[in-house]
Specification:
Layout: H1 28-38, H2 44-57, E1 61-63, H3 83-99, H4 103-107, H5 110-131, E2 134-135, E3 152-153, H6 155-173, H7 192-210, H8 215-227, E4 240-242, H9 253-256, E5 266-268, H10 270-278, H11 283-287, H12 295-303, H13 310-313, E6 316-320, E7 326-331, H14 357-360, E8 367-368, E9 375-376, E10 417-420, H15 422-435, H16 439-463, H17 488-493, H18 504-518, H19 523-533, E11 537-538, E12 544-545, H20 572-581, H21 594-599
Parallel strand pairs: 11-12
Antiparallel strand pairs: 1-5, 2-3, 4-10, 6-7, 8-9
Helix pairs in contact: 1-3, 1-5, 2-19, 3-5, 5-6, 5-7, 6-7, 7-8, 15-16, 15-18, 16-18, 18-19
């Protein structure tokens, strides 16, 4: 637990933990602690606005109203595009603070600036993904004599700048005498070797984004990462996984991430869920919620003589007594918890089709208690697992038959976030190994990545105490916990769709599909993978992309709206020039310009394959 990240989110956080009267100049270590405090890639508005669009466009999630031409419409967006500014201002503060210290004293503290820059680059990559050019090199310098209206840097030049800064950070972390105070560092507790691995691994996020524009440079960056003496994130112990606080005296965002619900209008994709369940992929249990059809609910429908969904009943072993009444005996096949995960169909306008009534109109199939007083209905499909994204004191809602009561006491759940894991790194290295036609190396990276991905999600599920992890709540005798079990990873990896076999194209597809599954709870990274790779591929035997006559792929956006600059803004001329220089049309949210958001691409997306076309190299 950090004792320095428990209070106000205000900018004067850096002055905490010492007598205010004694504070005369900023302290680099406290400024760094505040950098971590404001570091946030995926806050509430991102999940509320951005994530549903991304999931629909890459078809890894489905609106609860089904896929319609409405998926091309853009909504308001969250903070993506400016998150890096929150940390960049502290980079500038630390830089200025060190410049005013004696040279010898400042030299031992440059690691604070380097670490703050790594966090800022992480956010800047994320922000640039949807908007391209950013104000970066001149940004946040006005306080120290820089311009009030900073110039925009091209995305290509930004990638070069960030690669240079990451290399410089790695060199700084490796110098003798460098230190980051452990009590001020909730990320790695002052372990500079881990900071170096973080910086080196982050270069791979840039490398994969370079593939469509500069394959040779992308391969050079990846090779340098793999051979770097500092190493890269390759184990669960190295990953960037932390919580900012376990106790908070003011506000809940530090402790819980936030407390609002989100993604209520987006559910899992049937194509994705079926693929994961059919291949016994344990991550389905950590990324998605169980549906509400436990065995007690099934029996309640049998007791009332009511029909249940055929796709659920096909997995029920039941007997029928002399009166024709059915009795639940057990779940068939893989059983619990696998039988509790279903997604919505990708089929166009499926919500208007009678065959999908149990998905979209399950509320019409209510049952009452024995006295006919309490009516209830039960959701058949799985939502995304919100408890992996936020903590807080929330009650677990156990599905119960009408008339039954089962309450679960709430408990405090501080939130843990994984920002960069060993699975992601190894999947990128597998991708580059296949690009270089090195099958043996690709298989080693790929196999390791799949094992690590499952382990990372299991670890996060345990830390975040999500529903049904470690407990069944003692209601349904046929309920099973979702914890990772011995042998499950091996079983999953032996499935033909997961085993690293096939042609070069088939192996590359498996790598990209696994990247997207690994990014299930990371919508931006999943979207970028789909956009740059062309997967899911139309007609695939793994996870297939659907095509819609009413909404062709060239109408599916590939970025967000620019927004329409206001002419009273000091940055107006620079903003308009930036939009023009990128070949964009200024647009605000709406339904009539998805073609522009598809055709007018950011630099890194130019030359990338069309949605569903598969890779083009």
């Amino acid at each position: 637990m950090s004792t320095l990240l428990l209070g106000s989110c205000a900018d004067d956080f850096a002055e905490m933990n010492q007598d205010k009267a004694a504070v005369t100049t900023p302290n680099a270590s406290y400024l760094f602690a505040q950098t971590v405090n404001v570091f946030e890639a995926c806050g509430y508005t991102y999940w509320f606005y951005n994530a549903p669009m991304m999931y629909s466009w890459n078809q890894m999630g489905v609106p609860t109203g089904g896929m319609t031409n409405g998926i091309t419409a853009t909504t308001a967006t969250g903070d993506q595009g400016s998150q890096y500014i929150n940390t960049l201002r502290y980079v500038r503060e630390i830089e200025n603070t060190l410049s005013n210290l004696p040279e010898e004293e400042a030299a031992s503290m440059t690691s604070y600036q380097a670490a703050a820059e790594v966090l800022t680059i992480y956010l800047a990559i994320f922000d640039s993904d949807m908007y391209g050019n950013l104000t970066y090199n001149e940004a946040c310098r006005a306080k120290f004599g820089g311009p009030l209206t900073p110039a925009y840097d091209s995305q290509e030049s930004l990638y070069n700048t960030w690669l240079e800064q990451l290399d410089a950070a790695i060199a700084t972390f490796s110098k003798e005498g460098q230190v980051i105070t452990g009590s001020q560092d909730v990320v790695f507790k002052g372990d500079l070797k881990k900071w170096a691995k973080f910086a080196n691994s982050l270069k791979l996020r840039i490398a994969v984004r370079l593939i469509a524009q500069n394959m040779e440079k992308a391969k050079q960056v990846a090779a340098a990462v793999a051979s770097a003496s500092c190493g890269y994130i390759d184990t669960l112990d190295d990953e960037v996984l932390f919580n900012k606080a376990t106790v908070s005296t003011m506000g809940g965002d530090l402790l819980y991430h936030w407390s609002n619900g989100f993604m209520d209008g987006t559910a899992s994709s049937g194509e994705v869920i079926n693929f994961m369940v059919d291949n016994l992929d344990p991550r389905v249990r950590f990324c998605y919620q169980k549906n509400e059809w436990n065995s007690k609910v099934v029996q309640a429908y049998y007791d009332r003589g009511k029909e249940i969904p055929d796709f659920i009943e096909s997995k029920v072993d039941y007997t029928t007594d002399a009166d024709g009444k059915k009795h639940f005996v057990a779940w068939k096949g893989a059983g619990e918890p696998w039988v509790r995960y279903y997604g919505l169909p990708l089929e166009y306008n499926s919500s208007s089709m009678a065959k999908y009534d149990w998905y979209y109109r399950y509320g019409n199939n209510k049952i009452a208690d024995a006295e006919g007083k309490v009516e209830k209905s039960y959701c058949t499909f799985s939502y995304f697992q919100q408890q992996m994204i936020i903590g807080r004191r929330y009650n677990v809602s156990v599905p119960t038959a009408p008339g039954d009561i089962k309450s679960v006491a709430s408990k405090d759940r501080p939130w843990y976030g994984l920002y960069l894991g060993a699975a992601e790194v190894n999947l990128y290295l597998a991708e580059f190994a296949m690009i270089n036609n090195n099958d043996a190396a690709a298989k080693t990276y790929y196999d390791k990545a799949l094992e690590l991905s499952v382990q990372e999600y299991d670890k996060l599920a345990k830390l975040n105490q999500i529903a049904y992890y470690g407990t069944t709540y003692d209601y349904d005798p046929n309920e099973e916990v979702i914890d990772l079990k011995d042998g499950e990873i091996s079983t999953m990896m032996q499935q033909p769709a997961y085993a690293f076999t096939g042609t070069r194209d088939e192996k590359l597809e498996k790598i990209y599909i696994q990247q997207m599954l690994n990014f299930t709870l990371y919508p931006n990274e999943q979207f970028i993978t789909a956009r740059r790779s062309g997967y899911p591929k139309v007609g695939s035997s793994l996870i297939a992309r659907e095509t819609y006559a009413g909404t062709p792929v060239n109408m599916i956006p590939r970025r967000f709206d620019t927004g329409v600059p206001v002419d009273t803004d000091l940055m107006y001329d620079l903003q308009m020039a930036n939009i023009k220089n990128q070949g964009f049309t200024a647009t605000s949210s709406g339904a009539n310009h998805s073609d522009k958001l598809h055709d007018e691409r950011i630099w890194a997306d130019k030359n990338a394959p069309e949605w569903g076309a598969g890779h083009n190299y």
